[in-house]
Automatic annotation (TrEMBL):
<dbReference type="InterPro" id="IPR005894">
    <property type="entry name" value="DrrA"/>
</dbReference>
<dbReference type="GO" id="GO:0005524">
    <property type="term" value="F:ATP binding"/>
</dbReference>
<keyword id="KW-0547">Nucleotide-binding</keyword>
<keyword id="KW-0813">Transport</keyword>
<dbReference type="InterPro" id="IPR003439">
    <property type="entry name" value="ABC_transporter-like_ATP-bd"/>
</dbReference>
<protein>
    <submittedName>
        <fullName>ATP-binding cassette domain-containing protein</fullName>
    </submittedName>
</protein>
<dbReference type="InterPro" id="IPR017871">
    <property type="entry name" value="ABC_transporter-like_CS"/>
</dbReference>
<comment type="similarity">
    <text>Belongs to the ABC transporter superfamily. Drug exporter-1 (DrugE1) (TC 3.A.1.105) family.</text>
</comment>
<dbReference type="InterPro" id="IPR025302">
    <property type="entry name" value="DrrA1/2-like_C"/>
</dbReference>
<feature type="domain" description="ABC transporter">
    <location>
        <begin position="5"/>
        <end position="236"/>
    </location>
</feature>
<dbReference type="Pfam" id="PF00005">
    <property type="entry name" value="ABC_tran"/>
</dbReference>
<dbReference type="InterPro" id="IPR027417">
    <property type="entry name" value="P-loop_NTPase"/>
</dbReference>
<dbReference type="Pfam" id="PF13732">
    <property type="entry name" value="DrrA1-3_C"/>
</dbReference>
<keyword id="KW-0067">ATP-binding</keyword>
<dbReference type="InterPro" id="IPR003593">
    <property type="entry name" value="AAA+_ATPase"/>
</dbReference>
Amino acid sequence: MTPAIFAENLGRTYKDKVALEGLNLEIPRGEVYGLLGPNGAGKSTTVRILCTLLLPTSGRAMVAGYDIVDHPTEVRLRIGAALQATAIDGLQTGREMLSLQAQLYNVKPAVAKKRIAELEALIDLGSDFDKRVSTYSGGMKRRLDIATAILHRPPVLFLDEPTTGLDPRSRQQMWDEVRRLNEQLGVTILLTTQYLEEADFLAHRLGIINDGRLVAEGSPLELKRTVRDDIVVANIKGDAREAEGPLAAIRGVKSVSALGERIEARVTDGAQAIGHVAIAIQQAGLELADITLRTPTLDDVFMELTGGHITEDEHEPVH
Ligand SMILES: Nc1ncnc2c1ncn2[C@@H]1O[C@H](COP(=O)(O)OP(=O)(O)OP(=O)(O)O)[C@@H](O)[C@H]1O
Ligand SMILES: [Mg+2]
C-alpha cells in the first residue's frame, strides 16, 4: 500500500536561508505522525509544502498517492489542513464558514448539516457560532480552523501547531478529537507541535526537527529509551546554581543544569546517585526542599541531540 505521506530529500531554501533540508518521510495510512521542534525548525515549511501551498526547492513528495508538484489539485481534494496563519474571512459567522467549506468540497447538504451539528459540539462556541469570526478570540478561531479542516472528512489531515494558544480544557478536547478522527475514521494525521506532552500523547511516531533537519525519528518511547540516563531533580531553598559545582563533582553525574531553585543532574544510575546528590547539597551549606528521580523526557532527547531545549518555558516532566 502506498504510504499516505512520502517525502524524499525534500528541501526548501528562501534566498540564502535553508528552511528545510534532506527530509525523508514515510507515513503509512492510519498513523498519527508528530513533527516536534522549536521555533523556526522548519515545521510550517514542511506542512506548507506537503499541502501544496509552497513549492519545494529540492526533492519530491507524494500525499494520498499523488505528487504534490505534478498533481496539486488531486492532493488538495484528499487533504484537510489547519495551518498556523490562516486568512479567515472575518465577516462570516463560524456556521457560515463551515457551510461554505461543505459546498467547496461538494458535501451533500443533509450530510453537511449533520456534520456541522457534530462539529458545533466539538468546537464549543455556544452562541458565538452565529457571530462574525472577526469577534472570535485566537483560541476560538483555532477551533473553527480545525473544524473546517475536517468537515469534508479528508483521509489525510495536516495540523500545524493545533493547540498553540488554547487553554488546557480546549487542548484536551482537541487531543480527544485528534484521537477519535484517527481511531474511528482512520484519518492519517501529520501534526506539528512544540509541546512535548502533546507529541508524547498523540503521536504514534515522532520526527524531531531542528534547524531544517530531521534529527531523530521513532515512537515517543523509543526516542526516550535512546537516553539511557536517569535524572535526579532537586529543589533547593535558594539559588540552585550554587549546587552546580558540588553536583558536577560527584562520580556518575554526567551533566548538571540549574534553573531558579531547581537543579537537575543526569546520572547513569539514579537509585545510586540520589543519596550522593542529597549529601552534596547539604555539604555545600544549602537547604534541600525535595529531591526526586525521573526518567528521560522528550526534552532530554532533544537536549542530547541538539544541546538546547525545545521550548524555554516547558520543563515539566513527561513520561
Ligand atoms: N517566506 C520566508 N522567507 C524567508 N525565510 C523564511 C520564510 N518562511 C520561513 N522562513 C524561515 O525558515 C525557517 C523555518 O521556518 P518555519 O516557519 O518552517 O519554522 P517552524 O518550525 O514552523 O517555526 P514556528 O514554531 O515558529 O512556527 C525559519 O528560519 C524562518 O525564519
Ligand atoms: Mg510554524
